[in-house]
Design goal:
Elements lengths: L5 E6 L2 E6 L6 H9 L9 H20 L6 E3 L2 E3 L1 H16 L18 H18 L11 H5 L5 H37 L4 E6 L2 E7 H23 L4 E2 L16 H13 L4 E2 L3 H6 L2 H27 L10 E2 L17 H24 L10 H25 L5 E2 L1 H9 L9 H4 L1 H14 L3 H10 L14 H8 L18
Parallel strand pairs: 7-8
Antiparallel strand pairs: 1-2, 3-4, 5-6, 9-10
Length: 495
């Protein structure tokens, strides 16, 4: 590259070459050189949210009369021109026009100064272009104008909160879609009575629809947890500046910023009741992250149940059939794997890892500031992205297309000796346990064996020295669906 491919900018540390056409400037370039760590870039939510803060700050500071007229390169600009250029540039960033200019690795200097300056420089240079200037001339200054009345220390936690809230409805919509798909399958599968299983061993019957209905309710409860934890993110500490005292910010700045950000973003936001606490603590982010982790645990459990229920098909449970979305083996012809459930597992393992990082970073703050905010931001936004994508894919390509194998499900149930539990009120636990052992030893149907014993007069009523009739056994076990509806099945039989 030639000298023409660069421009020279200067900051408090001296001069540095910056790519000639870059909207970012010298402080961003230093961060790029200092942190060639992962090759990752900031998530769109983090870019959008910090630009929203910059636009709101420009409007609030202008309304408070804090912008002055300015002369650069012999050109004069009114306060309104400066504010308007910043506002337009920030809106362009919010609209994703300049995402490629945000180039600092998420693993960067503490607190997020590099991300903040990346935003300040992009908006300042773009505003300068809007005013007719060249890149690096800074008719609008990154610190004095774009960062007016702000510090990284209140901008970054505010941006984290806004970015998470910006995608909240998208996350909740994904969960609602999964819940609805599971509920639809619960209705579709309600007529299929199958073996329940506890400890991975045979248990009393359930309906396949009941299993799916429980999955739906679990997802709904986790969505409620996520929404509830997000309420804490609505409390903003913008205006605390460096430590919470509000130094260099107008006394009305905090209140006006919260109101302006509410208007710009359409989000319900609240003023902080203690700016010092808002600077020190990232507990609200930890709360939100942990709610997503809890959701991840639920989704792993559901995905693993899908894998178990679909296992086989010849040598497993084979009670549900997952759609064949791709060949399952490069060596075994015809093999089809539960790939969408496997994907969901892996995605949620990653989410749990992200939450662990957030938890460690949240506790690592000292005194007036948490300097680990960049990695909190990256992992929180990554959790949301991965969860939204994984849930939507699992819903569309697995849940909506899953089918039931009634023959196999009901076939397993016919061999399940644990349906003897329904006879507990009639013959008691001990006689029932003896029957189960004999049925398993003979590979016999528990119903047929119990009827045979009753006909031979070998079964007694639980609390009476009176034979149980074969008709009583038949009545208790004639409709296995009744065993899935609760109540005492054999208790009303006898006399």
């Amino acid at each position: 590259m030639t000298a023409q491919d660069f421009r020279v900018e200067k900051d408090s540390l001296g001069e540095l070459r910056v790519p000639a056409n870059a909207l970012y400037g010298v402080q961003t370039e230093r961060a790029v050189e200092n942190f060639p760590i992962s090759g990752l870039r900031p998530w769109r939510a983090f870019i959008w949210s910090i630009a929203a803060v910059k636009r709101a700050a420009a409007e609030v500071n202008f309304d408070l009369g804090l912008f002055n007229d300015r002369e650069v390169d012999g050109k004069k600009f009114t306060a309104k021109q400066l504010y308007s250029a910043i506002s337009q540039a920030a809106q362009e960033v919010m609209d994703a026009k300049w995402d490629s200019e945000f180039v600092v690795d998420p693993f960067q200097a503490g607190a997020g100064t590099s991300h903040n300056m990346n935003a300040n420089e992009v908006i300042a240079n773009r505003a300068t272009q809007i005013l007719g200037g060249g890149l690096g001339r800074y008719y609008v200054h990154p610190n004095d104008h774009v960062n007016m009345a702000q510090s990284t220390n209140d901008v970054i936690p505010t941006s984290i909160r806004l970015g998470a809230l910006w995608r909240l409805n998208e996350l909740l919509d994904a969960l609602k879609g999964l819940q609805s798909a599971l509920e639809a399958k619960a209705v579709e599968f309600d007529g299929i009575v199958k073996s329940g299983r506890t400890h991975l061993q045979d248990a009393v019957p359930v309906r396949l629809g009941q299993e799916f209905g429980a999955y739906a309710r679990a997802v709904a409860r986790d969505a409620e947890r996520v929404a509830r934890s997000a309420e804490g993110l609505r409390r903003l500490g913008i205006g605390g500046t460096a430590v919470g005292s509000g130094l260099n910010a107008h006394p009305e700045y905090h209140k006006r910023m919260v109101k302006k950000l509410s208007e710009l973003t359409g989000l319900k936001l609240y003023e902080s009741d203690n700016l010092f606490e808002s600077m020190q603590s990232m507990a609200d982010a930890a709360d939100f992250s942990s709610a997503i982790r809890t959701l991840a645990l639920t989704l792993i459990r559901i995905a693993n149940d899908f894998r178990l229920l679909a296992s086989g098909p010849s040598t497993g449970l084979d009670e549900i059939r997952l759609p064949a979305v791709q060949p399952g083996s490069s060596i075994m012809p015809g093999k089809v794997n539960p790939v969408m459930a496997e994907m969901l597992d892996q995605a949620m393992f990653h989410v749990i890892g992200c939450d662990t990082t957030v938890a460690l970073a949240v506790q690592a703050g000292q005194l007036e500031l948490n300097v680990m905010m960049p990695i909190i931001a990256h992992n929180l936004f990554e959790m949301m992205q991965v969860t939204i994508g994984a849930v939507n894919a699992f819903t569309e390509r697995a849940v909506k297309r899953v089918t039931a194998n009634r023959e196999k499900a009901e076939g397993w149930l016919s061999k399940n000796a644990i349906v003897i539990t329904a006879l507990n009120p009639l013959i008691g636990y001990s006689q029932g346990a003896t029957l189960v052992k004999e049925a398993l030893a003979k590979n016999a149907s528990i119903r047929e064996l119990a009827v045979e014993k009753a006909k031979a007069g070998l079964l007694k009523h639980r609390d009476e020295d009176r034979p149980v009739k074969a008709e009583e056994i038949e009545s208790a076990l004639s409709d296995l669906r009744k065993l899935t509806e609760g109540g005492i099945i054999g208790g009303s039989v006898g006399g």
